[in-house]
Request: fold
Amino acid sequence: MTEYERWLGRKLDDPDLTEELKSIQNQPDEINDRFYRNLEFGTGGLRGVIGAGTNRMNVYTVRKATQGLANYLNKHGKAPSVAIAYDSRIKSDVFARESAAVLAANGIRAHIYPWLSPTPTLSYAVRSLHCDAGICITASHNPAKYNGYKAYGSDGCQITLEMADEVLSEINSLDIFEDVKYTDFEDAVKSGKISYIPDGVIDSFLEEVMKQRVFTEKCSGLKVVYTPLNGTGRVCVTRILDMIGVRDVTVVPEQEFPDGTFATCPFPNPEIKEALQKGLDLCETVQPDLLLATDPDCDRCGIAVNQHGGFVLMSGNEVGVLLLDFIARGRLKNGTMPTNPVAVTTIVSTDMVTAVAEEYGIEMRRVLTGFKYIGDQIALLEEKGEADRYIFGFEESYGYLSGGYVRDKDAVDASMLICQMAYDYRKQGMTLVDAMDALYRKYGYYENSQVSFGFEGEDGMIQMKRIMENLRAKAPMEVAGCKVAGWSDYETSQRCDGGTMSAITLPKSNVLEYRLENGSKLTVRPSGTEPKIKIYISAKGANAEESAALIEKLKETAPGVFGIR
Reply:
């Protein structure tokens, strides 16, 4: 209440905040939700609901985070510089300029895109412009009420845990109003303290994406419907498709241009069918080979495939498996497969990629959830002078990357590769659905699914913490009538198989994994970007029907066993 009254008593730079604060007077629950904590800063930066308060995304929480980053950079180097990008969300452009103004006031050169840009172009700009850090204002695929602040290191990866801890320490030492340096944005542009990133950076980014092509033949005649879901993808994706010869592209008109309200897709996440509905409706008329959808910051890509006139949505795991197989096959054919090739995926992605990797002699590395860990593997290979060994990385949540030119998932690259893959199979008289069915017959019927449970507000945070504590105190012995054969606790770095304990070498993370006697696997993880607990479920059956039945049984049973309601 003291902090609320302090905010209410100040003349705030954003009148929207004052209006909101006045509207919640005498509403203790609403006040508490906005002020019971500071918006958490971690390796993913900030993410939260847009609004007034310390637990909200607003100009003051953004300025404070940027001041913390500025303090860190000035302590660790001379004349640092930072690249900044932003997406189509509400106030993204405002938060980007506020960040630049704080950096300029701290003697740090800020390079900002003059227009909204995909997240991977931020990762690229950090490396291309030799910056010490990067900031991307985005909440990725979250609903319209959210925005976020992603922080990147000089390598183009999202910041490390060590850097996040140091920046957080700086942030925690600041008063949100009194300790933040600030200057006028336009004045800083005129003085050269803030500069706009030139068009040539995007051009060179697209040239690097083009280098990831599996073949150079133009994809003539491929027909595509594309939706950027009112986000940042339209310019880069349509340009790259034109560059590879995909000229028949119909953009979903209701979702073509930036709109932070996401009026036609309240959950602008290509993992969700409802987000693709406008595109699917248009496909019924246009009858393309493929529907492509990119999320608001254009780092995730979802697809639907024309299968005899109907459109089949494919999962992130399926597209990841298809792309790994396609890239490996293509590289072997072209003679460009490196010695000891490496692919990277996450602990919650399908086990099917392990079988595909073995087929091609590819080392498959598993990392924690979050593409920054895939980026770390690229960086490690680069440090050893072995960057060319990396051929592909993906996560089940629709994130893909086939080269080291950026260190984050890239839906521009994914869109290009998926279209090349669809074109290649079409020449063989097959769709991507047909191709996936062929891989299932070859490697086995792996099925994957996910269930998630929302926990809003302070009570939700407490409840999520209690669920994870209870699971650690009393691990389940069986799920859906099948005994638990082994488990992994990534927070304590312990693994148990048949009573034998061993250590996990990955960084600590609040994740629990349970392996059942029938080969199924369940992973429980609080989301790092949303107030949710997610259960990732995988199974393998003798056929599609058997694996699907196993998944449904586990989805029905697991939440109760894990104490999640």
Remarks:
- The CA atoms of residues 123 and 374 lie 14 Å apart.
- The mean pLDDT is 95.
- DSSP finds 18 helices and 23 strands in the chain.
- The two ends are 31 Å apart (CA to CA).
